[in-house]
C-alpha cells in the first residue's frame, strides 16, 4: 500500500469543469458548499470497469488498488483467460 498525500484543493463556480485523469486524479473528494442542490456530470472516455484505480483507506491513511468491475463486457484479461481455457 502507498501513503496518500493531498496535492490540491479547488473551489469551483457554477458551470466550471475540471479533469480527473488517473492515476494522479484517481483519488478525489467532492463537497458541495452551497445550501442549494448541486449536479455533477461525469464523462468517461473508457471502460472504467476494467481499469485499475486507487482507493484511499481513511483509517490507515493508505492507498490500495482495486478494479470497480462496473462493466457491461468482460475485461480484455478475462477474455484472454477464457480463450486459454478452451
What report would you give on this structure?
- The protein has 86 residues and is an alpha+beta fold.
- The chain has 1 helix and 3 strands, in the order βββα.
- The chain has one helix spanning 76-85, and strands at residues 2-3, 52-57, 62-67.
- Strands 1-3-2 form a 3-stranded antiparallel sheet, with no helix packed on it.
- The N and C termini lie far apart (36 Å).
Give the tags.
86 residues; alpha+beta; three-stranded antiparallel sheet; globular
The strands making up the biggest β-sheet line up spatially as: 1-3-2
Question: Low-confidence parts lasting 5 or more residues at pLDDT below 50?
Answer: none
Helix and strand string, N-terminal first? EEEH
The residue-averaged pLDDT reads 76
The total beta strand count reads: 3
Helix content: 10-25%
Query: What is the count of DSSP helices, taking H or I runs of 4+ residues?
Result: 1
Class from secondary-structure proportions: alpha+beta
The 3D shape can be described as: globular
| Proportion of strand residues | 15-25%
Amino acid at each position: 500500500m502507498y501513503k496518500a498525500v493531498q496535492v490540491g484543493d479547488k473551489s469551483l463556480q457554477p458551470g466550471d469543469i475540471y479533469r480527473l485523469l488517473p492515476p494522479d486524479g484517481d483519488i478525489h473528494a467532492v463537497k458541495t458548499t452551497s445550501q442549494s442542490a448541486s449536479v455533477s456530470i461525469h464523462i468517461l472516455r473508457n471502460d472504467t470497469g476494467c481499469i485499475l484505480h486507487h482507493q484511499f483507506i481513511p483509517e490507515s491513511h493508505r492507498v490500495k488498488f482495486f478494479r470497480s468491475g462496473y462493466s457491461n463486457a468482460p475485461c480484455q484479461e478475462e477474455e484472454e483467460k477464457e480463450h486459454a481455457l478452451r
